[in-house]
Amino acid sequence: MSSHRQSLGHKGEMVAAEFLEKKGFSIIMQNFRFRSGEIDIIAKDNDTIVFVEVKSASSGAFGHPAEWVDEKKQSHLISAAKKYLFENNIHDVPVRFDVITVDFKNKKIDHFVNAFYETS
């Protein structure tokens, strides 16, 4: 990944975390790494643990950033979330997967609550 994309991604994650905090979420951790990927933000919304994928864009050249969270990416995020829950001995709590897109060109943030679900 190019350093520009990494920088844009990191900046987007910081903007998304601040956005969530303003909405009353508590940030538990950022950049939880797992062998099959990474979860950008893990937060708490009341009693729900929220795993957040952040997608940032500086142009509309490649479609809406939410479209980049395909089935393969969702599968990786679900696996990483299960790993996080297991490692932290967390059971019987509501969990959801959100996507936040940060459009730097148009200065717009979209928050897709329950963007996808675990289907198994």
Task: List key phrases describing it.
120 residues; single chain; Trna Endonuclease, Chain: A, domain 1
Q: What portion of residues is helical?
A: 25-40%
**What's the domain count?**
1
Flag low-confidence runs.
none
Spatial separation of the terminal alpha carbons = 31 Å
Average predicted local confidence, pLDDT: 85
What does this 3D model show about the protein?
Helix content is 31%, strand content 38%. It is an alpha+beta fold and 120 residues long. Strands 1-2-3-4-5 form a five-stranded mixed beta sheet, with helices on both faces. Strand 1 (26-34) and strand 2 (37-45) form a beta hairpin. The protein is built from two helices and five strands; from the N terminus they run H-E-E-E-H-E-E. The chain has one domain (3-108): 3-Layer(aba) Sandwich (Trna Endonuclease, Chain: A, domain 1). It has helices at residues 3-22, 71-87, and strands at residues 26-34, 37-45, 48-57, 95-103, 108-116. It is globular, with a radius of gyration of 14 Å. The model has no long low-confidence stretch (mean pLDDT 85).
In terms of topology, how is this protein built?
Blueprint: H1 3-22, E1 26-34, E2 37-45, E3 48-57, H2 71-87, E4 95-103, E5 108-116
Parallel strand pairs: 3-4
Antiparallel strand pairs: 1-2, 2-3, 4-5
